[in-house]
Amino acid sequence: MSNARKVRAYTNIALIKYWGKRDDALILPTSSSLSLTLDAFYTETAVSFDASCEKDTFYLNDKIQDEAATLKVSRFLNLFRETAGLKTPATIRSTNYVPTAAGLASSASGMAALAGAANLATGLNLSPQELSIFARQGSGSATRSVYGGFVEWQKGTSSADSYAVKVDDADWDIGMVVVVVNKKQKELSSREGMKQTVTTSPFYSGWVESTAVDLVNIKKAIRDQDFEQVGEITESNGMKMHGTMLGANPPISYWEPDSVVAMQLVRQLRKQGIPCYFTMDAGPNVKVLCRLSDSQKIKTAFLNYFNEEQLIISGPGSDLKEVSL
Prior knowledge:
The protein is an alpha+beta fold. The chain is 36% helix and 25% strand. The strands form three sheets. Strands 1, 4, 5, 6, 7, 8, 9 and 14 form an eight-stranded mixed sheet that branches. It has a four-stranded antiparallel sheet with strand order 11-12-10-13. The chain has a two-stranded antiparallel ribbon with strand order 2-3.
């Protein structure tokens, strides 16, 4: 299987959140978003096309996956097959170095790695921009995992111009401490939570308007390397997103008691003069944006309440890249 290729993609955590679609089929967002790619969490995926196989086969973490999971991967691969004029079945082997479906953006790194490997295995050799458009159609946040550093997903006007662009390498003492409150699969998926919020929350239109302002302001703060301003906007934007969920019918909350403990700890550390800011996605885990040089101090403070294995320090991740099989 000489066409087998393997790619690593890093996950990303949105600082300006993606929450809501205007087109479910093409995964076009209601607003643009901005993220930080992290080097501590990634997915490696190998794709090989083999005419001797009868159908697509998908292994995740060395376990063969059921029909539903395989169908999702097959549909995504069809974007590449159709573009390349192929009908050959594929074997997909993916290893997640991220807990799946726990609000740690495993779908972002997973679909970006699959896109990267499929791109090479089909010989399409798409540009990063084209690859970002393809990745978006597997998972919205995957469009941003094509790149490292700070990345903006521009909502665009159509599928052709809804893609990610790198904003900054994030090479100026930026990091995160990820607090893994619970790594179990969540009961309500992001996709379902998003849909419920968009259709029922009276706060949603205000969220879309204010997010556009947040995006302009955070990009200026990144250009100025104003860490405190980046942090303040990040924390505010994340809480607004959760506010829209609380306004949904029925109300949605991904928080657990330890999520609130982590947020309170961040506030305490700020009072003590350590600049750090929290954000949360659709899950209970808390991400603490900080200066990488402060990350060990922050982790030490959190060890009074959390176990060592619940606290993961990460620096900025890089662009997706091919790795050896």
